[in-house]
Design goal:
By secondary structure, the chain is of the alpha+beta class. The chain is built from six helices and 15 strands.
């Protein structure tokens, strides 16, 4: 039997996406690369642990959990998370950004300056722009200002992001239009923290980085991995944690967060054998009250 590996998740860098495995092994991904694996027959999904440490109790977690952690490890992970609002004394400078994921889907968020745009790649932002930079609490107050005054959310479910990728405008200027409008309204607001240095509007487009230009539209998403199941497809695009795989039945999206905790083995090919949920895109995803 082939050696089994445990996936540690998908990571993004300036070079592109790569799968990481327990033990430090990395698998760089490129368009056209075949992604093929199966879950070990009779296997169970174990907690992925927290902060780089294995779960001490090796708790079995649900197949559909995108976090892939038990309650104790999830609590430990959140305790050290800036994104979860659990850290208030981080001395690093932060940036505030506006991100666009598709028609009607705009959010505000913050990321450490030293991380550059990696956070936006990890979230699957099709287009984004900086609002400003400054101390952590100033960035947080600016984020809250936009949520309260303009009703711009700070979270958008991944299911909504991936469901609208087939409806992206072709022109780069159109993809930047919604965050351009929000930026214009945001800079007119009073109450900006004095310690936050505002940034000019310079949209950054990730369609090329994600391989979405000209890529065939996905018909659905893999809902969960199951013991004995397999998937094999050509990588045509990737955004955030999602891999878009061209299979014999069409393009399906695999959320790589579902891979963590399973023992996986390579397969030569074959039909997808994981449950697939087909997309049902609504005619209008526009956020209420945003514009």
């Amino acid at each position: 039997m082939a050696q089994a590996w445990k996936c540690a998740g998908l990571r993004w860098s300036a070079e592109g996406p790569e799968l990481r495995w327990d033990g430090g092994r990395r698998s760089p991904l490129s368009w056209g690369k075949r992604v093929s694996f199966a879950v070990v027959e009779g296997g169970v999904r174990e907690c992925a642990g927290a902060r780089g440490h294995a779960c001490p109790r090796r708790v079995v977690v649900p197949a559909r959990s995108t976090g892939g952690r038990c309650e104790e490890c999830a609590r430990l992970d959140r305790a050290h998370s800036v994104a979860a609002d659990r850290v208030a004394d981080d001395p690093r400078p932060y940036r505030v950004y506006l991100a666009w994921f598709g028609p009607g889907l705009v959010k505000v968020g913050i990321t450490a300056v030293e991380r550059g745009s990696v956070r936006l790649l990890e979230q699957g932002a099709v287009c984004f722009g900086w609002l400003g930079s400054g101390p952590l609490m100033a960035a947080r107050r600016t984020e809250e200002l936009l949520r309260a005054a303009l009703r711009v959310p700070d979270r958008i479910p991944y299911a909504e992001k991936r469901a609208v990728r087939a409806a992206l405008p072709v022109a780069r200027e159109e993809r930047a239009e919604e965050i351009r409008e929000v930026y214009a309204r945001a800079v007119e607001l009073g109450g900006w923290p004095e310690s936050l240095e505002r940034a000019p509007f310079r949209p950054v487009d990730h369609v090329g980085a994600f391989g979405l230009a000209g890529a065939p539209a996905a018909l659905g998403e893999i809902g969960e991995l199951v013991p004995g199941g397999a998937v094999s497809g050509e990588l045509v695009a990737a955004a955030g944690p999602d891999l878009h795989l061209a299979t014999s039945d069409g393009v399906v999206v695999l959320d790589t967060r579902l891979m963590r905790g399973w023992r996986l083995v390579p397969v030569a090919g074959g039909e997808p054998a994981f449950p697939v949920r087909h997309f049902a895109v609504e005619a209008d995803h526009r956020q209420d009250g945003l514009f």
